[in-house]
Amino acid sequence: MSQLNNNLINMEKHHSSFENFVRSLPVPILKEFVKGSSLQAVDFKKTNVILNTKDSDAITKAFPLSVEKSENRMLIAEGVLSVKGKRVAALFSGGPASGGHNVVVGIKKALGADNTLLATKVGPKGLLAGDFFEITDEMVNNICNTGGFDFMGSDRTKIKTEAQFSMVKDVVKKHNIDTIIIIGGDDSNTNAAILAEVLAPQGVSVIGVPKTIDGDLQLGDLLPISFGFDTATKIYSEMVGNILQDTASSLKYWHFVKIMGRAASHVALETCLQTRPAYTIISEEVLEKKMSLSQVINDIASVIKVRVEKGINHGLVLIPEGFIEFIPEMRTMLAEMDEIIGHSMEAFTAMDIVAKKEFIISKLEEKTVVLYNELPSSIQSMLLLDRDSHGNLPLSQIPTETLVIEMVAPRIKELQAAAPKDSSFAHYKFNALNHFFGYEGRCGAPTLFDAAYCINLGLVAGSLALGGHTGYMASITDLQTGGKAQAIPLTGLLNIERRHGHDEFVIEKALVKLNSPAFEFFVSRRKAWAEGDYFTSPGPRQLMGPVAKLVPITVALNRGYENLKFDLGNDTEIK
Ligand code: FBP
What we know:
Blueprint: H1 3-10, H2 17-23, E1 34-35, E2 38-39, E3 42-50, H3 56-62, H4 64-70, E4 73-80, E5 87-93, H5 100-111, E6 116-120, H6 123-129, E7 132-134, H7 137-143, E8 154-155, H8 162-174, E9 179-184, H9 186-199, E10 205-210, H10 229-250, E11 254-259, H11 266-275, E12 279-280, H12 283-288, H13 293-309, E13 315-320, H14 323-326, H15 328-343, H16 345-350, H17 353-363, H18 366-374, H19 377-382, H20 400-418, E14 432-437, H21 448-466, E15 472-477, E16 484-489, E17 494-499, E18 502-507, H22 517-531, H23 553-558
Bound molecules: 1,6-di-O-phosphono-beta-D-fructofuranose.
């Protein structure tokens, strides 16, 4: 066999030239974690910052042990910590997000050789089953700076019943576990808060780490962004930028791109600010301005008309994944459906699609049935897809982008019929293509920001575990000025929300705020972007060189940074 053949075979199982290169890429580490040429755990102290929500009284009653211990106070790193003999289990929960492997690396580095780190196979489901393996130094060297969650897998099981709680209690006892670290989004961190309370009498602590590409787990200066958002949006921005470059070259297509991010439009807004397409829907604006679906469709068709009149027959529309849930009339319908489905969950799940449609039509209010019947049959079915165990509709499976195209095309025809017969618009032929960018962005090798952010988040989580803290979520603040290691009390974030027919404790999703600097900047530029070609192609994410150290534009604008560069301390080699 030739040398090249051998080299190609050696690249199998995550040993491409790229993967080998990123494994040893140095990433910035906060100075408090650096001890000479290695890393160390730090101690955390209570601060005077206390977090509360509108439901704090009810939360204090429901989580007495956690609130008594934390007083809902933020923690900040102070001093070093030396602890031996602890056993910590880490798990991924929910959709993958780039940087997750580095969280594991950071936890392992904080625990050092004197403590044990266990990996939980396949998320919360693996915790219930007590399915663990011990993480070695060799393993963390292998996963460092790589994308995905494949090292231990993930799932969306919500641990909520008494039977599940007692399974977890038995598992932690059997495996002698001191701390569980849950690396997940808003729902998973709610799970962490609940488990922290349930396991407190056993002296077992639970720590959360803020993960989600959706960017809807953020808390102003206390948690500037969840990890995975930067990598996902940079991947989507590269792809959108490439399409914008193509469509301005081929001069004939309109591209309708649905982009992941579940409910909130942070991913769409960030991608829009990175690439400047002709039209971006921000779901939160649709809801706040009570825009109907036909109003949004009319807006898009009007932008297409204006561009055609200027000789621009191409463009791109960005559609956030959650758009459909934010159209006021749809939102009312979905809330009604959730309530109905929530009360007959088991029976409903067992029905076939025809029976589901009949059932829902028989239960919906009359005027809602009218709206439901107006929707294309494919969308009707998609709205009845099984919710996940947190009650979420699988929005990634609903082809909103084709629905929008199907509605824009006839609206253009109507506008053309009213246009002067000799105008360019009257003779224009609308050519539309649809895309969905989602899974492509969740597992790529992390950007330098996510790589560094995640190792540091892991160092915070590992340190909190060693310090015996419970019911906290790791955070790194002050991203432009060296970074600060902090911890957020989870009970200080909990609210009571109506979900699939029941009141539940949840961490409220952070949505795009219409008075945020990022949204206001978008508003100040969108007319220009609609009427001309102002697009930019940000290119592939970089790990070295002048553009490697960029934070998301939305984060920089909303946090009032001077520029786009992050500074998380020295470029320390991981040892
Ligand atoms: P998380 O809230 O778990 O981070 O979800 C991220 C996400 O990528 C959403 O943007 C998307 O709607 C969903 O996961 C898709 O989930 P699945 O992997 O179950 O198809």
